[in-house]
Amino acid sequence: MPDPIVVPPWGDDPLSKHMADAEHNTRAASVNWPDVYEVQQRAHALLRRVGEVLENEPAQSQNMGVPMMLFHRSHSAI
């Protein structure tokens, strides 16, 4: 088993504060709005399935550059 990657603690710089706030907000949103989180869970499951289908079509991979980019962007937006 590979050694786990240890992430350094957040610093006192503006980017570290932004990242810490984003992490906190992500967790808080799932607790404060469980109905929205349920929709996000469903969207995530659907987009994972779409990704599996797209990855299993190697014959079409030449024509899938833009759709794959848009798919990954949509999935990351969740």
Description:
The structure is a single chain. By secondary structure, the protein is mostly helical. It contains three helices and no strands. The mean pLDDT is 82.
- Helix and strand pattern: HHH
Residue share in helices? 55-70%
Mean pLDDT: 82
Number of strands: 0
Unreliable residue stretches? none
Number of H- or I-type helical stretches? 3
Could you tell me the strand content as a percent range?
Answer: under 5%
Q: Termini separation (Å)?
A: 30 Å
Key words describing this protein structure:
78 residues, mainly alpha, 0% strand, extended
Secondary-structure blueprint:
Blueprint: H1 14-32, H2 34-55, H3 65-77
Helix pairs in contact: 2-3
Question: What's the short story on this structure?
Answer:
With 78 residues, the chain is mainly α.
